[in-house]
Amino acid sequence: MATILVTGGAGYIGSHTCVELLEAGYDVVVVDNLCNSSRESLRRVEELTGKKLTFYEADLLDREAMERIFDNERVDAVIHFAGLKAVGESVCKPLEYYHNNITGTLILCDCMRRHGVKSIVFSSSATVYGDPAIIPITEECPKGEITNPYGRTKGMLEQILTDLHTADPDWKVMLLRYFNPIGAHKSGRIGENPRGIPNNLLPYITQVAVGRLVCLGVFGNDYDTPDGTCVRDYIHVVDLANGHVKALAKMAGEQGGVWIYNLGTGVGYSVLDVINAFEEANDLKINYVFKERRAGDVPACYCDPSKAERELGWKARYGIREMCEDAWRWQKTNPKGYE
Ligand code: NAD
Ligand code: UFG
Predict the structure, then answer these.
(1) Of 57, 56, 109, which is closest to residue 78 (Cα–Cα)?
(2) In terms of Cα–Cα distance, which of 231, 141, 229 is closest to 177?
(3) 212-261, pLDDT tens digit by residue?
(4) Best substitution site from 146, 200, 218 to test ligand 2's pocket, by max atoms within 8 Å of Cβ?
């Protein structure tokens, strides 16, 4: 069976994807510098699957370390999650974001090329659509104006990887545009573990529920949406992880190319819908107040996921209730995350 190098595999989406890869029979090699994750997540991945993976604590920016990994391992394809992802922080630290996300990917791809590895699945984001021109968003929707350096690294990296395929058509490049991953593995053993105060909605809600935070601020209630709060396409992280397994299977049967897929459910929920769903699913109350709009938020962002269903045979299975139940199971059994 093939060996998959998973960059950023100790992180939120990466750890869930490692579980699905191991269960599908792949050998997994993880490289992560643990700047936003913990070794413990991978220990739990092994515990959940009863299988071993190989872990390298290394930085993508460390070219020698990356070369050594490719020298040691017979890698068939790469799933590339490693990157910094906090939108607000990226506005304050653009150089760090461009350096880590762009240079890190350049070094990774150079090592891949030198070792004859030419298959990469890349974590892109719905953020590349900006304020989307078409709703629901299809892959044909033009890329929009991106409002922050983090998002711009995604747009630039999509272009860089596409250029790589133009220069050498043997490259197989899969650009997966994630919508809003939430939830956790059913076991409650792995989940999202943000450092400091969460930027994203679901971890904020679960930390209010567990008593670590007092009150959720809902950013804006005067958008042109049914209830005035922003609408997003939330997707269960296990569904998202499975999309990567399907992506690898598709690439294995292809010669070379660039493929773009939206990974979402196709259903939009407002912030208030999510609060209500979380309260109902878990039978608790979430304290919230309305606040000013958050800079850079778009009113509505949800996709048409039918291309992934047609071409990858992938479709999200879990609905918002399970996303909320599973997010809460993780948080309540791990109130301080992996600490
Ligand atoms: P995460 O922070 O949990 O995981 C990213 C991992 O990459 C972390 O374990 C971190 O330690 C590692 N990392 C960062 N820079 C590194 C470097 N230079 N060398 C080695 N390791 C490094 O984030 P996540 O939510 O799992 O996201 C995974 C990917 O998906 C990211 O590229 C992110 O931008 C993208 N994405 C995430 C979302 C989301 O909402 N979570 C949405 C769209 C796209
Ligand atoms: N929100 C709140 N209060 C909070 C946090 C969020 O009201 O404390 C609202 C936001 O204003 C937004 C919605 O909840 O309307 C979702 O916000 P998130 O921060 O959870 O997610 P975003 O849609 O802003 O961003 C996510 C990823 C980005 C990615 C983007 C692409 O975090 O990495 O989707 O659409 F770029």
Answers:
(1) 109
(2) 141
(3) 999 999 999 999 999 999 999 999 999 999 999 999 999 999 999 999 99
(4) 200
> Which residues does residue 95 pair with via DSSP β-bridges, in sequence order?
none
| Active-site residue identified among 12, 56, 129, 150 | 150
- Ligand 2 centroid–CA 292 distance in Å is 14
DSSP labels, 254-314:
-SSEEEEEEES-S--EEHHHHHHHHHHHHT----EEEEPPPTT--SEE-B-THHHHHHH--
DSSP for residue 76: -
C-alpha–C-alpha distance, residues 166 and 173, integer Å: 11
For 134-153, write each residue's pLDDT tens digit.
999 999 999 999 999 999 99
CA of 88 to the centre of ligand 2 (A): 11
Q: Is 132 helix (H, G, I), strand (E, B) or coil?
A: coil
Q: Whole-prediction pTM value?
A: 0.98
Task: With CA atoms as reference, report the closest residue to 32 among 47, 49, 20, 17.
Answer: 17
- For residues 79 and 244, the answer to whether their CB atoms sit within 8 Å is yes
Task: Please confirm, yes or no, whether 288 is among the known catalytic residues.
Answer: no
* Dihedral angle sign, alpha carbons of residues 21, 22, 24, 30: positive
Q: Is the CB of 35 under 6 A from ligand 1?
A: yes
Ligand 1 mutation target, pool 5, 17, 35, most atoms within 8 A of CB: 35
